[in-house]
């Protein structure tokens, strides 16, 4: 199968909604593969698109007996998993409606983006890859893993599984409106890697702004006043649906073999170390929420101590965290974001913004922020560093590295 052409264009943003409004069901994860590495027909497809919305069965994240005073214990996490199973509908073109007490937008988003393979698959989807065999050519990924990830992303409404050949049935995976709307986060990832991991710049996509015709880097700004925004410029925290327990990542993910930070697949390697694992993403998000101590990460997130210790070690090795003696006792250490770590703020905020627009809790948002400079609710806007104009998805050209 031929590799996709260079210079795929037109990352569709919110204005590029899918006019069909169709949604697909979960891809058949048990389907076999032919010799060419393409995906044969699944049993539930009619006319290329499965009728009805994509659904996923998720555990209700209501507070369990293991939770007290805002802390999340391992027992509380297990108890939450034993709650009544609910069916969530994930439409391609409108938000998922979450029932009261369910895992909130932060937890669901971390469960989706806090997986290395999901991010890599989405990276190539924005470059125009749609077919199973193309992802197999681009990524060092097994059939089983690729099948599961495509099924999960389709189930979550990020991809639409569409028949492109009827004689010997073949399907491709097209980004939906929900999926295309991830472009601000992925652009922020590439911009951070370009600034802080210069040795991997050659593997990063080129971003061109059609409006000014120049290569650009996105700048995080406030939509209300158009000023650039850094972590210290906003204040806020948990909103009506925001608790530590409800924000714990909703999916169980596995890291691929080998070091995440070694660039084994040749793509934004340090970002993978920060958010390519659900607990890494949760720890980083908690740091932006003001957590600094080991015991706070452990108690609030409910993660095993060995995982917390490993992630903190990796973050310090990458220069994202630094160890600082505790004000309580000099022999205790706290972990603070460095300049490099704080520069990851746009990635974190664009991810949260996507999640809160596409997973709507009955009680209200999980996180609420105010921009200190203008006093307005902080609404995210990315602008072009070359011409300062607001970025729109349909005005961005994403090209393969030269």
**Rg, alpha carbons:** 21 Å
Secondary-structure element order, N to C: EEEHEEHHHHEEHHEEEEHHHHEEHHEEEE
Name the helicity range: 25-40%
Q: Which stretches are low in confidence, meaning pLDDT under 50 for 5 or more residues running?
A: 1-53, 57-85, 252-264
Q: For the report, how would you describe the main beta sheet?
A: 3 strands, antiparallel
Number of strands: 17
Strand order of the largest sheet: 9-8-17
Terminal-residue CA separation: 21 Å
Secondary structure tally, helices: 13
Structural class: alpha+beta
- Percent of residues in beta strands: 15-25%
Average pLDDT, all residues: 79
Shape: globular
What does this structure look like?
This protein is of the alpha+beta class and 402 residues long. The chain is 31% helix and 18% strand. The protein contains 13 helices and 17 strands. Strand 12 and strand 13 form a beta hairpin. Helix 2 (105-113) packs across helix 13 (345-358) and helix 7 (183-196) packs antiparallel against helix 13 (345-358).
Would you spell out the secondary-structure blueprint of this structure?
Blueprint: E1 55-59, E2 67-68, E3 71-72, H1 74-81, E4 85-89, E5 96-98, H2 105-113, H3 116-126, H4 132-138, H5 143-155, E6 159-165, E7 170-175, H6 177-180, H7 183-196, E8 206-209, E9 214-215, E10 218-222, E11 234-238, H8 269-275, H9 278-288, H10 294-301, H11 305-317, E12 321-325, E13 333-337, H12 339-342, H13 345-358, E14 359-361, E15 367-371, E16 380-384, E17 396-399
Parallel strand pairs: 5-14
Antiparallel strand pairs: 1-4, 2-3, 6-7, 8-9, 8-17, 10-16, 11-15, 12-13
């Amino acid at each position: 199968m031929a590799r996709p052409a260079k210079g795929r264009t037109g990352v569709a943003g919110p204005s590029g909604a899918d006019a069909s409004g169709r949604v697909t069901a979960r891809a058949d994860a048990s389907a076999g593969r032919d010799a060419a590495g393409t995906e044969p027909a699944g049993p539930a497809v009619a006319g290329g698109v499965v009728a009805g919305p994509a659904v996923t069965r998720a555990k209700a994240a209501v507070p369990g007996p293991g939770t007290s005073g805002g802390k999340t214990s391992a027992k509380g996490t297990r108890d939450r998993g034993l709650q009544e199973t609910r069916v969530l509908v994930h439409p391609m073109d409108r938000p998922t409606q979450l029932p009261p007490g369910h895992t909130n937008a932060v937890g669901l988003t971390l469960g989706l983006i806090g997986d290395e393979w999901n991010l890599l698959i989405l990276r190539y989807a924005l470059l125009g890859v749609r077919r199973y065999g193309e992802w197999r050519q681009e990524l060092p990924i097994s059939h089983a893993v690729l099948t599961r990830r495509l099924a999960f992303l389709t189930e979550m409404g990020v991809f639409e599984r569409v028949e492109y050949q009827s004689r010997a049935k073949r399907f491709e995976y097209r980004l939906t409106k929900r999926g295309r709307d991830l472009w601000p986060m992925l652009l922020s990832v590439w911009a951070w890697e370009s600034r802080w991991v210069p040795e991997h710049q050659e593997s990063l996509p080129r971003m061109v702004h059609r409006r000014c015709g120049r290569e650009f880097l996105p700048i995080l700004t406030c939509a209300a006043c158009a000023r650039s925004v850094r972590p210290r410029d906003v204040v806020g925290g948990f909103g009506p649906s925001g608790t530590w327990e409800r924000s714990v990542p909703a999916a169980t993910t596995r890291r691929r073999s080998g070091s995440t930070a070694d660039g084994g697949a040749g793509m934004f390697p340090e970002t993978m170390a920060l958010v390519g694992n659900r607990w890494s993403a949760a720890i980083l998000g908690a740091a932006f929420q003001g957590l600094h101590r080991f015991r706070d990460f452990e108690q609030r997130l409910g993660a095993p101590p060995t995982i917390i210790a490993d992630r903190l070690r990796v973050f310090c090795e990458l220069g994202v965290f630094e160890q600082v003696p505790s004000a309580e006792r000099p022999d205790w250490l706290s972990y603070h974001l460095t300049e490099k770590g704080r520069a990851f703020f746009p990635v974190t905020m664009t991810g949260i913004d996507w999640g809160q627009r596409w997973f709507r809790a009955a009680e209200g948002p999980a996180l609420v922020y105010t921009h200190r400079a203008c006093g307005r609710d902080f609404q995210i806007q990315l602008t072009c560093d070359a011409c300062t104009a607001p970025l729109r998805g349909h005005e961005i050209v994403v090209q393969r590295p030269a």
